[in-house]
Amino acid sequence: MSNFARASFWMALWICCTLSMTLAGRELSRELSVPEIMALRSFMAAMVITPVVLWSGGRILKTRYTTVHFIRNLSHFCAQYFWFLAVSLIPLAEVVSIEFTMPIWTAILAALLLQERLTNRRLLAIGFGFAGVLIILRPGVGAVSPGTLAALAAALGFSLSVTLVKRLTVSEGVLTILAHMFWTQAGLAVLLVIILSMLPGEPFNWVWPSSRLYPFIALMGVVGSAGHYCLTQATATVDATVVGPMDFARVPLTVLMGYGLYGEPLTAFLFIGAALILAGNLLNSEKRGSDFR
Hints:
By secondary structure, the chain is mostly helical. It has one domain. The chain is built from 13 helices and no strands. The chain has helices at residues 3-28, 34-55, 66-89, 92-99, 102-113, 120-137, 146-168, 174-198, 214-237, 243-246, 250-262, 268-283, 288-291. It is globular, with a radius of gyration of 19 Å.
């Protein structure tokens, strides 16, 4: 099987997992705060990977890049926090459109951290991506909402995470990357809950979810863990700046989900901005012919 076929297979599974995670995140946000959602998501992921770690006798935890793992995992933890916040505040179509500036940021970070070539074509792609974000956010026309800023912060954090995964996959196995990620993020979730609980004014109180949410919690745990495995496999197969354009099918699917399940409005600015971001992603995939052989 060619690299293109393998990457397409893993990205198709990743898209299914991410759409399911989006649905679970929106439903959970109806009753639970973002810190609690993050805690539940992190604990379940740690539960999934722990038997694998024990079965290996701890061998899959061995690494020479502890610092890189930690920076990557901290970046992803913060990005996912902002992503859940955005999902709870703004339409899903807007979240996913802004999220797809991630390949644009990845192109910049890959050039800085991985010495991947930043060509004139990729610079043009970056320009298209920024233009798309400006059209969606329209700063100066109205106040930019906290939800849109959260979505943009999530895209930046995910970009750094994807770039560092590409660096780690040169010498680290997928299960090693995931084990460090899930255990580190479980620790970060505990730390976050403790800190928020100790702040004056009680800004955070743990609320046990109702039985209606149990299926969505289980769904979040399963697809969240499986999705990261699929994305890590795809990133290990191809160049870091090529994975993003393959993922763009999530945009129309998420738009349809938001419109069909939640009656979220669709605007011309959203479509124009998303189209420009798509154009940037397609330009950004210029190395596709050589990378997929």
